[in-house]
Design goal:
This is DUF559 domain-containing protein. Helices cover 38% and strands 18% of the residues. The protein is α+β, with helices and mostly antiparallel strands. A hairpin with a 2-residue loop joins strand 7 and strand 8. The longest helix is centred in the middle third of the chain and has 28 residues. The chain is elongated.
Length: 342
């Protein structure tokens, strides 16, 4: 018997895609492969091998990174009635209640700080808490009571970046590894710091010192990226130059607060809203609102811009600022304030 010989009325020749080179024993039975045939083909001299329990690699060589991912999902997935593809219309694989997470998911999302799939020593798979598959070989089963809505990446169910990141940093104990992952998430536009931090808080990771240290760096990274976008917005959409990163004070009076950009001739200010989940949102927003009300009572218009809006719709945000600058001609002049570098 050779590897190319049809095994049944439903031959396997059409299963040339990577995901079809890894099948469960149940799927092979649906193709007409008997237990005896399967045992023979997976024997010491056979053309196949059992990569994981009930998961068969349809060649005898080492699995590719993609094949390892497919096999991990098939192993952890809830077993049901196997799909029965045909040569005319092979179905895409289904992995009920199994989602890639951790470094494997981040690699599929395009992270360079994680090894590529074929270099991963471990593949993490999320399943619901009620199920009981066990970690085995290179597969680590992660049970969760809050399964995320998976995203399809390269035909595989993958946890969103924030969830995959939280699962990835749950294991390392050094700040540099965690910082590298979080920094790439921010720099690469994979998520806003606040969203990433909410997921870390949900996973109860923020109390760990190495995570907390990395998070401080993420906040700085997130603000720096947002400031760069604000500079580009002013330049690219032809807004007048403001003074950057200043503090306002009343003459001989109290400190009024710091601002990211200020147009003294128009009494218009911009402040970046970079609130994160490590803070008490209600208390922080109360401070934002109080500061804004105080400045506007003095005749200064404050425009709050979020990093996400600056990234996704900078032209719209430039219009908001331009409108505030134009409207200044119709307002009463502001009180005199002292502007100092922050």
């Amino acid at each position: 018997m050779t590897h190319d010989t049809p095994l049944s009325p439903r031959p396997l020749r059409h299963l040339a895609d990577v995901h079809r080179r890894v099948l469960t024993a149940a799927q092979l039975r649906a193709h007409g492969v008997s237990p005896a045939e399967l045992a023979e083909r997976c024997g010491p001299d056979g053309p196949w091998r059992e990569l994981l329990p009930r998961v068969i690699l349809l060649h005898s060589g080492p699995p590719t990174g993609e094949e390892r991912l497919h096999a991990a999902l098939l192993y952890a997935a809830r077993q049901g009635v196997p799909a029965q593809p045909t040569a005319q219309g092979p179905q895409r694989p289904q992995y009920p209640d199994a989602v890639l997470t951790g470094p494997a998911a981040l690699a599929l999302h395009g992270f360079s700080a994680t090894p590529p799939p074929d270099a991963l020593n471990r593949v993490d798979v999320l399943v619901s808490r009620q199920r009981r598959p066990r970690s085995l070989g290179y597969v680590r089963v992660v049970r969760t009571s809050e399964p995320p809505e998976p995203q399809q990446v390269a035909g595989l169910p993958v946890a969103p970046v924030a969830r995959a990141l939280a699962d990835a940093v749950a294991e390392p104990t050094d700040t540099e590894t965690v910082r590298r992952l979080l920094t790439e998430a921010v720099r690469g536009g994979h998520g806003e710091p606040a969203a990433l931090l909410r997921e870390l808080a949900r996973a109860r990771l923020l109390h760990r010192p190495h995570v907390a240290d990395a998070v401080d760096a993420v906040f700085a990274e997130g603000r720096s990226a947002a400031e760069d976008r604000l500079y580009r917005m002013v330049r690219e959409y032809g807004l007048p130059d403001p003074v950057w990163n200043v503090e306002l004070r009343l003459p001989g009076g109290p400190h009024l607060g710091g601002l990211d950009a200020y147009w003294p001739d128009h009494a218009v200010a911009v402040e970046l809203d970079t609130r994160g989940s490590r803070q008490d949102d209600e208390a922080v927003w109360s401070r934002y609102a109080g500061k804004r009300e105080h400045l506007e009572r003095l005749g200064i218009t404050v425009v709050y811009l979020t990093p996400r809006k600056l990234r996704d719709c900078p032209e719209q945000q430039a219009t908001v600022v331009r409108t505030a600058l134009m409207a200044s001609a119709d307002r009463e002049p502001s009180v005199y304030v002292v502007v100092r570098p922050r």
